[in-house]
């Protein structure tokens, strides 16, 4: 069985598997073919892949020969068409939000897995790329803010006077938000955080941050630990509370998302205009609608001296460890579908079925089935 690893598009510095993960895969009695220069942006040379036991090939050969094609970003339809009919495609295909690609895969009777569909259950935690990439983004967002801020994060008592610590407000205390809290605390900032889920409060406090309470949030125990949409009345109350805290903040990092929906707007234009000049907002939800009314995906906007950075794929800014985590998630998932050096797809397994977009053209994941109906 041949497992192929392609070079990602030009704006994606990560690679699906680093050489160390390839070495593990090869010990499972499979062949690994890597496109030349696939790991260069993550500082993994072709030589390192060869030392790990992989073969270096041209892209066209890998597309044609692979039994399983591993990637991060989805490849184009004309490249999928070059894969052999039994070849399985795997990546972060964004299948629920890319109906054109999903329909194409179904029409062409393909088998495809989409890593963002991995069920968010305890057993699947070690395969959850959304969580591992959110960890990278939360960390990197704080470093980005610290770099842009014209002030120190920590408190200093110096001969040249005292510096008070910066005040950081984190909106959304999920995986990315908690990592942002921990990183901002390590840099010595005074951190405040807010989330609609009461379960987040304890985690926020345990990291040494203060929790901003807004009473009256709607929670749904059936939402698997995720947030649900809030009433217009609650959202307004929340925006008012955020407004009060934002005026005192030096940095706001927003991470609030609701699976399958537009991100909630938490920071209004009047709030940005009321903030101190020099303050920085990093909006991690910019690509799903933005938590700040003024953020633009992949752009930095300045309003009254407040810089609002709309970040998309922040994980690609730290390609080495992001690829390492991605590869580990992949290996944990592949353990479920590779037996004795061959593909063995057991759809009785909820993780395999939940992650599968379609098998031989038949939709498998229940939300994909629903979407196509
Ligand atoms: P996410 O990226 O969907 O959302 C980020 C955060 O935004 C969440 O904490 C959410 O509550 C918050 N949010 C949504 N609307 C908001 C609003 N109006 N105001 C403020 N905050 C708002 O979520 P995530 O970080 O991927 O995960 C959230 C939680 O899900 C985790 O903390 C964890 O409890 C659970 N989870 C479980 C697993 C697993 O078991 N495998 C994996 C990942 C996450």
UniProtKB/TrEMBL annotation:
Residues annotated as domain Alanine dehydrogenase/pyridine nucleotide transhydrogenase N-terminal: 4-137
Protein name: NAD(P) transhydrogenase subunit alpha part 1
PROSITE patterns recorded: ALADH_PNT_2 (PS00837)
UniProt cross-references to Gene3D superfamilies, sorted A to Z: NAD(P)-binding Rossmann-like Domain (3.40.50.720)
A Pfam family of this chain: AlaDh_PNT_N
MF (Gene Ontology): NADP binding; oxidoreductase activity; proton-translocating NAD(P)+ transhydrogenase activity
Protein function: The transhydrogenation between NADH and NADP is coupled to respiration and ATP hydrolysis and functions as a proton pump across the membrane.
């Amino acid at each position: 069985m041949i497992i192929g690893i392609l070079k990602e598009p030009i704006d994606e510095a990560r690679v699906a598997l680093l050489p160390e993960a390839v070495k593990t895969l090869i010990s499972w009695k499979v062949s690994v073919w890597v496109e030349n220069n696939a790991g260069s942006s993550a500082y993994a040379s072709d030589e390192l892949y060869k030392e790990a036991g992989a073969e270096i090939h041209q892209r066209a050969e890998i597309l044609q020969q692979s039994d399983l094609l591993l990637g991060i970003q989805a490849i184009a339809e004309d490249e999928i068409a070059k894969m052999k009919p039994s070849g399985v495609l795997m990546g972060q295909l964004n299948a629920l939000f890319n109906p054109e690609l999903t329909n194409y895969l179904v029409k062409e009777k393909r088998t495809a897995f989409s890593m963002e569909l991995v069920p968010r259950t305890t057993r699947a935690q070690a395969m959850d790329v959304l969580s591992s990439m959110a960890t990278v983004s939360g960390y990197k967002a704080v470093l980005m803010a610290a770099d842009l801020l014209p002030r120190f994060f920590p408190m200093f008592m110096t001969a040249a006077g005292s510096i008070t610590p910066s005040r950081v407000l984190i909106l959304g205390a999920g995986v990315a938000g908690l990592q942002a809290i921990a990183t901002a605390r390590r840099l010595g900032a005074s951190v405040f955080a807010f989330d609609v889920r009461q379960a987040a409060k304890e985690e926020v406090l345990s990291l040494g941050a203060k929790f901003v309470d807004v009473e009256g949030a709607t929670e749904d125990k059936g939402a698997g630990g995720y947030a649900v949409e809030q009433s217009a009345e609650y959202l307004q109350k929340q925006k008012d509370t955020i407004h009060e805290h934002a005026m005192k903040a030096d940095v706001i990092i927003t991470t609030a998302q609701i699976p399958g929906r537009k991100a909630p707007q938490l920071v209004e234009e009047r709030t940005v205009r009321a903030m101190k000049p020099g303050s920085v907002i990093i909006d991690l939800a910019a690509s799903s609608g933005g938590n700040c009314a003024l953020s633009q995906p992949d752009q930095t906007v300045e309003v009254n001296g407040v810089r609002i950075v709309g970040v998309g794929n922040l994980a690609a800014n730290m390609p080495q460890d992001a690829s390492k985590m991605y590869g580990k998630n992949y290996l944990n998932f592949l353990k479920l579908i590779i037996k004795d050096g061959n593909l063995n797809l057991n759809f009785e397994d909820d993780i395999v079925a939940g992650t599968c977009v379609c098998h031989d053209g038949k939709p498998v994941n229940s939300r994909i089935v629903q979407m196509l109906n």
